[in-house]
Write a structure and sequence with these properties.
Number of domains: 2
Helix content: 40-55%
Mean pLDDT: 87
CATH class of the largest domain: Mainly Alpha
CATH architecture of the largest domain: Orthogonal Bundle
Radius of gyration: 19 Å
Oligomer: single chain
CATH topology of the largest domain: Phosphatidylinositol 3-kinase, Chain A
Number of helices: 9
Order of helices and strands: EEEEHHHHHHHHH
Low-confidence stretches: 44-48, 253-260
Distance between the termini: 15 Å
Strand content: under 5%
Strand order of the largest sheet: 1-2
CATH superfamily of the largest domain: Rho GTPase activation protein
Length: 260
C-alpha cells in the first residue's frame, strides 16, 4: 500500500507499506485477514491508465503524501523482503533483457502493478529500479538545485555541511524530496546488511550518477568528467544525514509508519 485507504470489508485504514489484497477486476481493496469475509461478486471498473514511457518524477507520483511512485515502493519492498542477504546488491547487474521487459511491463500497468515475487533474480528487480530512476528526464536532485547540492557537499565542517544539505533537500519538489528520503532510508538498510557487502561508499558510486546526475540534460564532456567524483560525494553526504531527518518526509502520519 502506497496510499493509505480503508479496507472495503472492515472499514479500518490499511497503512502505508502494508500488504493488502486488491481485486484485479473491481479494484476492491482489503486486509489479508479480511479475505474470508469478502463478497464473491464484483463489478469491473476501468483499468488504470499506463504511465508515460518517460517523464519527471512527479508524473509517476501518487496524489497524496508521501509522494513516492508505487513502482519505487514495490521494487524496494521486494528487495528488502528477499534481497538483503544477496552479495553485491545493486552492484551486480541483472539480465538486461529481463530488466527492460519488467520495466516496460510495470510502466504499461500504471498504478496496478503485477507482483514482482515472480521475478526469480532479485538483481533484475534492482535493475528495474535503477533503470527507472536513470530514465527520468531529470535526476532526483533536479537540474536547478544541482549546483547547490555540490556546493553544500564541499563544506568542510560536518555540522554546517549537514545543515546546508538539509536546507537544499527541503527545497526539492515534494515528489523528488519524498522519493529521495524513501530511497535514502532503503540504501541505509542495505548498507547495514553484512551479507550485501555494500557500504555507503559502494552505494554512492552506484547511485551517485543516477540520483545526483548533472546540471543539464546534455552536459559537456568536461562537465561529465568534473561531476562524476562529486556525484558520489554528494550521495555519501546525503547518506550520512540522520535517518530521523529522512523519516520526517515519508512518515507523514503516525499511523503510516513503515515497520522496518
Amino acid at each position: 500500500v502506497i496510499r493509505p485507504e480503508p479496507c472495503c470489508v472492515c472499514g479500518s485504514r490499511i497503512r502505508f507499506g502494508k500488504t493488502a489484497i486488491k481485486c484485479c477486476h473491481c479494484q476492491l481493496l482489503l486486509h489479508t485477514k479480511c479475505r474470508e469475509q469478502c463478497p464473491s461478486l464484483c463489478t469491473p471498473r476501468p483499468h488504470h491508465h499506463a504511465w508515460p514511457c518517460e517523464g519527471v518524477l512527479a508524473d509517476f507520483a501518487p496524489s497524496t503524501p508521501p509522494l513516492v511512485p508505487i513502482l519505487v515502493v514495490q521494487c524496494v519492498t521486494e528487495v528488502e523482503t528477499r534481497g538483503l542477504t544477496e552479495t553485491g546488491l545493486y552492484r551486480v547487474p541483472g539480465a538486461e533483457q529481463l530488466v527492460r521487459e519488467w520495466k516496460r511491463k510495470l510502466l504499461r500497468a500504471g498504478g496496478a502493478l503485477p507482483a514482482l515475487s515472480s521475478v526469480t533474480d532479485i538483481h533484475v528487480v534492482c535493475g528495474v529500479l535503477k533503470d527507472f530512476l536513470r530514465g527520468l528526464k531529470e535526476p532526483l536532485v533536479t537540474f536547478s538545485l544541482h549546483p547547490a547540492f555540490l556546493k553544500a557537499a564541499d563544506i568542510p565542517d560536518d555540522a554546517a555541511r549537514d545543515a546546508a544539505l538539509c536546507h537544499v533537500v527541503s527545497k526539492l519538489p515534494p515528489a523528488n524530496r519524498d522519493t529521495l528520503a524513501f530511497l535514502m532510508l532503503h540504501l541505509l538498510r542495505v548498507s547495514h546488511s553484512p551479507d550485501c557487502k555494500m557500504d555507503v561508499l559502494n552505494l554512492s558510486r552506484v547511485f551517485g550518477p543516477t540520483l545526483v546526475g548533472h546540471s543539464s540534460a546534455n552536459p559537456t564532456p568536461l562537465a561529465i568528467m568534473e561531476d562524476t567524483p562529486r556525484q558520489s560525494k554528494v550521495l555519501a553526504c546525503l547518506l550520512s544525514l540522520p535517518p530521523s531527518f529522512w523519516r520526517g518526509f515519508v512518515e507523514t502520519e503516525q499511523e503510516n509508519l513503515v515497520p522496518m
